[in-house]
Specification:
binds pyridoxal-5'-phosphate, Aspartate Aminotransferase, domain 1, seven-stranded mixed sheet, 14 helices, Aspartate Aminotransferase, domain 2, alpha/beta, 2 domains
Length: 440
């Protein structure tokens, strides 16, 4: 086999180019690379906790992902509600590149002028007075749980540490956030469940009232359950929760890890609902793909969080802050959310007509903004696979729902394209169902 030149992709100002000065690779090396790429060289050394699809991506551009096998996919996952600006957005890339060449990490032992600036921008855009930066959604939630407990302790009520949560919730994979989510399938085998969470059915006000007792510190809820199956209780329920918290001096905590940063068509979902929490967790889209989480709180709610009560080595790291700052630059422009709402309307209208045409495949469209759920009639993994066959990537959720989470910058043409892929998948599934019925 003759030697050949490997194409090396070089990243310049948001565009990929092929550099022709890549090193020569000799045949034996090529052979090894090919074997590794095919996954035959050795068993995976990654902890097998993810049921990964047999597909790998090497680059992305806007709403598109390019697989290592040369195929192009329309991305309606956005890294599970993370890549809100799409892939390789030039503004985000430039911000990360510029910061990387100045300062990648700086500990929280010292002041963070950029961290101060972005915290101020988040507070200006929300109900909050103070922000703690973390690295993930679960960590942002851990901080929210700690603020809630500490609020009561700092007000002389340390016995109030319990938090009311809701069935179907997902708050992360740390031991405390798993206990808050309360899903048995995730808790099983990990020892005693972290104490202090009382779960009630979503939207059940009477059960919520009953769950509040002398040890209750707060109520924790997702404005719109993502993992749980794109489920949203009535706005009146949120208003009632606010009232319950006010009446009993409890904190109302919103987990906006998935809904926050524009996903539902407002910067934060609480703004759409019209009910303001005391504490809010963010992550996912906040860094546009760079890992960062944040816990936002009123000054009053965070009264117990004095020096030494919480911390993180990486939280608020300069690179993450630069990414979040670039995301906010775009999202704080009023036209950004208008566009998300327009895209949402278009997508939901088109999906509703597909549901009408294929009632044997799709039962319902639900959700807000660009957090949309398609309830499947058959098993939802079959639907995800059928979409993937049409080169459209989607995400599963609870209640037999498939989530559509396109990047918030998706164009109308790309929405039309995605919808036509969904229609094609439905036509094929309908035909397969009909055939199975005829045989059966
Ligand atoms: C609502 C919600 N909270 C918390 C989390 C946990 O976030 P992370 O995976 O970044 O820890 C998630 C993740 O899907 C989420 O959807």
């Amino acid at each position: 086999m003759p030697p050949f030149r490997a194409a090396r992709f070089v990243f310049r100002t948001g565009k990929f180019s092929v550099e022709d000065k890549a090193p020569r690779i000799e045949p034996p090396v090529i052979h090894q690379v090919a074997i590794i790429a095919m996954g035959h060289a050795s068993p995976s050394h990654l902890l097998p906790v993810f049921a990964r699809a047999d597909l790998a991506f090497e680059r992305g551009e806007g709403a598109w992902l390019f697989a290592t096998n040369g195929e192009r996919y329309l991305d309606f996952t956005s890294g599970v509600a993370v890549n809100a600006l799409g892939h390789a957005h030039p503004h985000l890339v430039a911000a990360i590149q510029a910061q990387a060449s100045k300062l990648i990490h700086m500990s929280n032992l010292f002041k963070s002028p950029d961290g101060e600036r972005i915290a101020a921008r988040l507070c200006e855009a929300s109900f909050a007075d103070e922000v703690f930066f973390a690295n993930s959604g679960a960590e942002a939630m851990e901080c929210a749980i700690k603020i809630t407990r500490k609020y009561q302790a700092a007000n002389g009520r340390p016995e109030r540490y319990r938090i009311v949560t809701f069935e179907g919730a997902f708050h992360g994979r740390t031991l405390a956030t798993l206990a808050a989510g309360g899903q048995e399938k995730y808790l099983e085998g990990f020892g005693p469940k972290v104490e202090g969470f009382d779960q009630v059915p979503l939207g059940d006000l009477e059960a919520t009232k009953k769950a509040i007792g002398p040890n209750t510190a707060g109520i924790l809820i997702e404005p719109l359950q993502g993992e749980g199956g794109v489920r949203e209780p009535a706005h009146a329920f949120f208003r009632a929760l606010r009232q319950l918290c006010d009446d009993n001096d409890l904190l109302l905590v919103f987990d906006e890890v998935q809904t926050g940063m524009g996903r539902t068509g407002e910067l934060f979902a609480y703004q759409r609902i019209g009910v303001t929490p005391d504490v809010m967790a963010l992550a996912k889209a906040l860094g546009g793909g760079f890992p960062i989480g944040a816990c936002l709180s009123t000054k009053d709610a965070a009264i117990g969080m004095t020096a030494g009560t919480h911390g993180s080595t990486f939280g608020g790291n300069p690179l993450a802050i630069a990414a979040a700052s670039a995301v906010l630059d775009l999202m704080l422009d009023s036209s950004f959310m208008e566009r998300v709402r327009r895209s949402s309307l278009l997508l939901k209208q088109k999906l509703a007509s597909i549901v009408d045409r294929h009632p044997d495949v799709l039962a319902e469209v639900r959700g807000e903004g660009l957090l949309i759920g398609l309830k499947a009639v058959g098993p939802s993994p079959e639907l995800v696979a059928a979409f993937r066959d049409e080169k459209l990537l989607t995400v599963g959720a609870g209640e037999n729902v498939v989530r559509l989470l396109p990047p918030l910058i998706i164009s109308e043409a790309e929405i039309e394209d995605g919808v036509s892929r969904i229609e094609k998948a439905c036509v094929k599934l309908s035909a397969a169902h009909a055939k199975r019925k005829a045989v059966g």
